[in-house]
Amino acid sequence: MLIRLDSRSSKPIYRQIADAIAASIEDGTVESGERLPSARSLGNVLDVNMHTVLRAYSQLEEWGLAEMKRGRGGVVVSAEASLKNLAQRLVGEARRQKVALVELNQVVAEAWEL
Amino acid sequence: MIWGRLLGWAALMVLLGVLPLLIGWSQLPDPVAIHWGIDGSPDNAWPKIATAFLPVGMVAIGLFTTSLFRIEGRPTAEAVAIVGLMGGVGVSMMTSLVYLNWDAATWQEAGAFVWWHLIGIVLVGALGAWLGYLLGIRWYPRPRNSQTVSGPVLEIADDETVSWIGGCSVIWPLVLLGGFALFFLFMPGWLKMVGLVFLILGFLFLRVYVVINDHGMQVQLGGGLPAKKIPLDRIRTVEAIDLEPSQWAGWGYRVVPGGSAVVLRRGDAIQVNMTNDRRFAVTVDDAATGASVLSGLVARRERLTPSE
A70: burial class by Cβ within 10 Å (0-12, 13-18, 19+)? Predict the structure, then answer.
């Protein structure tokens, strides 16, 4: 897993970390089910604050690429599980907005066409 | 025959191990006390003839592990040392067994096992290992070889922070964990220590974890035990190699003339050639990327450090 951080970039550090890990997950260097290093140890390696790493991890969780598990730290989820996670969040948001399944399907179909 | 000397050495160890039994045969009860409790009194016995298998078994285990210590089909000095170690332990175990059972009417009346017997066993084992190593380097001198391929160097900007995290994990140390279980369930008390050593080694070598960053390369074994730390200013060149365990005389933490290595499997590995002319290698997945990152960091350090 290669992580390059550029302090002069306009992209915040946590986002650079999240992007780098996401790239490693996509190219298969980090496999699904693999445990991410603890926030403290990755912070030490990268010479950044532990909270910056935690923020990167929650970004990965938001993207559906990793899951934070109590006591086990971050775990990379499989592509299948990641899609399911995102779908659940989409359905949750649709229910909150009281959007019917037919309408939601339409929204997805429209997005697919884009 | 290449293995002849090693097998002869093993046979000698078995012979020395059985010798105390032959000498003491008529003086020993049948069955004989084979195991002593924590209070030092005997609490288990074997038929007299069965104890002959103790030195045989020890040497057999030693010979079995020599499969890990060979270079291009030839045993190494370590192989001879291991057989010496196991043989020495076998000899001293038999000696103390015969000594404690000597002239006892029944096995329950055998003498008490005291702590210095254990020290004696360890010392004789160490003596056997030392003698074996001395003979081994004479019988099986180490061939010199190292085929390496240099890789590309990652371009790194002056103020960029670049880190690489890698490693690999394997399952063969589970065999050691199995050995631990075997020793704990079936072996007499003092041999259980060997099981404990197997347990620790098994856990250590399940995985290796490598970090490359501005501080150089750090290597940790399973459980986070630091195994090696090489700062950037001690590195001359870095290569991604196709590591062959036989070139390092086996698996595990290897120390050979001219370098050391952490070898968990064959294949992808990073090799660092240091400024003191020693080399260090560690097996990692995607070694090419790791090596290019470390090369890049070394190159940048040289670029940014003013030359005297």
Answer: exposed
How much is the average pLDDT of B167-186?
75
Could you tell me how many helices (H) and strands (E) chain A has, helices first?
5, 3
The domain segmentation of chain A, as residue ranges, is 13-77, 81-113
> What does the DSSP assignment read for A65-82?
SEEEETTTEEEEPPHHHH
Tens digits of residue pLDDT in B197-207: 778 888 888 88
Q: Find, in chain A, the residue whose alpha carbon is nearest to that of B169.
A: A34
Q: Tell me the CA distances in angstroms from B101 to A47, B84, B93, B118, B186, one per residue in order.
A: 64, 25, 12, 16, 21
* Reported ipTM: 0.72
First to last CA, chain A: 32
Residue with tokens 């160097």: B153
pLDDT the model gives residue B119: 87
Q: Is B87 on the interface with A (CB under 8 A)?
A: no
Per the CB < 8 Å rule, is B161 touching A2? Answer: no
The CATH code of domain A13-77 reads 1.10.10.10
Question: Which pLDDT belongs to residue B98?
Answer: 92
User: Could you give the domains of chain B?
Assistant: 4-139 (no CATH), 149-169+205-308 (2.30.29.30), 171-202 (no CATH)
pTM tops 0.80? no
CA dihedral of A45, A49, A52, A56, whole degrees rounded to 10 = 20
B183-227 confidence digits (pLDDT tens): 676 767 777 777 777 788 888 888 899 999 999 999 999 878 899
B162 at interface of A, judged by CB pairs closer than 8 A: yes
Q: Which residues contact B167 (CB under 8 A, 6 or more apart)?
A: B207, B208, B209, B210, B284, B285
Across B85-113, average pLDDT: 90
Is the Cβ of B15 closer than 8 Å to some Cβ of chain A? no
